[in-house]
Amino acid sequence: MPSAAAARTVASATQREAGSAQTGKRSGGRSQATPRRRVTPRDKEAATGPAGTTVRIGVISDNHGYLDPTVVGHFAGVTHIIHAGDIMDAAILTALEKVAPVTAVAGNLDTGELAERLPREARGEVGGVRFLVGHKPKRLLNRLSNGKIEGERPDLVVWGHTHTPSAAWIEGALYLNPGTASSPEEEDDGPTVAIVEVGAAGLAVTFIPLARRA
Question: What share of the chain is helix, strand, coil (3-state, %, to 5)?
Fold first, then answer.
């Protein structure tokens, strides 16, 4: 688990999310977040897929019932997809599952079937990297720092809810908010999703902007 100091650092980082996602180099409209510290997978061979291809993880949150049709293309070829909640339409998960296996959690606006079907937080491992995902950062980080989430320390921690993309490397782990995939509120940043690449050198993140709905 992260230290108490690290938990406070991450909590503070969530309040500065708007600025942190804007750092890094721009390439083709995409924002490439440059890590201060990279995460190195324990199993170097696990970081590559068939024929030595780099493992890529699609990360998405806060669809609010809408899946931008370009997301499927952006996520084409990913090894796994992580969804941090507020899906609000089960058909979105069905569409994403046709692209790659999906690990998803329920957000505070997910009700009915989605609320019953999905956990509030979930763990997994892909490409030798252990990940943890929840919807609300305050709850997730408090539970993680207080040892209330069982399992080994994650390398990648994902949340949504705030509608603001961010990436922070704390004590060797990547803490990531992919932003909202739908920007339902006028004051929201533009919609985004993220892709995490898992290579022998560690983790790299690219934020992909989506078109705002009219």
Answer: 25, 30, 45
Contacts of 163 (CB under 8 A, 6+ apart): 62, 179, 180, 183, 184, 185, 188, 189
- Select from 44, 177, 192 the least CA-distant residue to 107: 177
Phi, psi of 126 (to 5 degrees): -145, 135
Tokens representing 94?
């069905």
What does pTM read for this prediction?
A: 0.82
Provide the H-helix boundaries in the chain: 4-15, 17-20, 70-74, 90-97, 112-117, 137-145
* Alpha carbons 157 and 202: distance in angstroms, whole number: 15
Backbone φ, ψ for residue 72 (5° rounding): -60, -40
Do residues 43 and 128 make contact, with C-beta atoms less than 8 angstroms apart?
yes
State how far the Cα of 187 lies from the Cα of 189, in Å rounded to an integer.
7
Residue with tokens 């709905």: 213
The series of mean pLDDT values per 10 residues for the chain, 214 residues long, is 52 46 45 49 50 83 97 97 98 98 98 97 94 95 87 93 94 94 89 91 92 86
The residue count of the chain comes to 214
